[in-house]
Amino acid sequence: xxRLLAGLAGSAWRGPLAALVSGALLAAGCSVFRTEPxxxxxxxxxxxxxxxxVGFGVPPHVVLDIAREDGAVRxxxxxxxxxxxxxxxxxxxxxxVQRLRINESGSSFPEEPWFRVGAExxxxxxxxxxxxxxLERVVFARNLxxxxxxxxxxxxxxxxARYPELPPVIGRSLMRPT
Length: 178
Description:
The protein is α+β, with helices and mostly antiparallel strands and 178 residues long.
């Protein structure tokens, strides 16, 4: 990178182009290595887990619709990688991952805009790990195979490395397919 900038500085393009290139590289580098600070609103808990999506192309470009059982709280969880760890905040209650929707900005399947998921989990009064939700598209049956794996020992340390401000106690409330 230093050679690139030095070469640009010695050419006729030295001023504006060198500034543009170095600014773009600096901005890209900062966004890759920086994580947003964890912000937990009052009355909510940290909910963490992972989603593995198979059969929707690479990257999958899907959204999971999550709702509390009373319907008062809804959350959309975008999934743009085949394996996507997540960390969200939700108020206490019983939640259901209701459906997987094709994200309109990604690839689309007009005849299949959404798939029923049917997995539920509980958010209590502490931070909670809900598991790895594995969703596999069954092409001919036009539905999903839904499984949940407990990968607490692998995923929680990875998330702690990215978010050192995570609460010291994290409970387990694995999702259950319904």
